[in-house]
Design brief:
alpha+beta; Beta Polymerase, domain 2; two-stranded antiparallel sheet; 7 strands; globular
Length: 360
Amino acid sequence: MDEVECVRALLQVALGDPEPGGPPAGAANVLATLGVEAWASGLARVEENRLLAPLGYALLRTGLLQGVPEPFRSRLDASQSAQRAHNEVRFAGFSEVRGKLRERGIEPVLLKSSALTALLHPEQAANQMGDLDLYVPPERAGDAAEVLAGMGYRRGPVTADAADYLDPSGAVRVDLHWTFRLFEHLPFESLWETLPAGFPGVDSVLVLRPNPMLAHLVYHLNAHRPYFGYQLRWLLDVGFVLQRYREDLRYGEVERLLPVRADRCNVLRVVEFFRKELGLAAPPGLAGIAAGVPSFTLEEVLRSQRFNPWPLSHPSGWLRLGACVAGFSDFDYRRAPRVTEFAARLADRRREEAALRLTP
């Protein structure tokens, strides 16, 4: 449980008062009492979720980093420098790509963690940023592909909805999307807006409006959940949206955006997760309905990361899991759930089924 409490306190610090010196008192007290083993296991989970730099920055911003014991403080410091350099390269790449697209009359929509980093985190170590996810209208996808090819980007895997592009240096990866199946039933022009950003060369960005952004982030989180479990870095992105745009979020909008009840259920469960597990007040426009839907827990989040990567739809997956539980190493480096977690996993499933029944 010390591992869970370490992760919980770090997430609470990240979502706390954005001004220096204002960490949630409860989180600060928990971190002050953690032993070396709790820090080691908690930061191992944080690092697996690619949140070492953002949470390290949150500790620095709130004056708590100096209280972290070594060698963990040095790891958190180093991770921030690496994340800052990483994000600077990606935003320079975005600025260059967007400039070339604009020359062809294309204004790309910036999505996911890249959009949130541009909007909410002027300090570039403050958020984990992966690929550059860009959306262009389907009728301009060919033109956008020509622009990227002309810049030396090499095309990688292609799906019906998107294509992967890697710049010549290998440092910037662009996911170019031209189909938004989640919102196909809506007029696309109602989904976007241009907002100010705070990075050199990126003064404003075209992004999803708050309600579509929330719906898309939660949908993306759950689309990957069967294979990887709940990912904390994507959950934290949702938390920042709930915090920053709380007055703009409405359940009526969620219903319009997500006609499938299971998708709406996932939104309500995430809202309740942040309220019950991390103390983040639910947005007024979602609070009443979300309160009647069972959420998941932080323990379940970490548990899902141990269960879901195993291919348990096949007998061989159970054999490999059983061998790993017995003490053998998995050749895909997956961690096995603890034996005591199997009963909790069944309870997780029952709670999710109940949540779906209770979702309007």
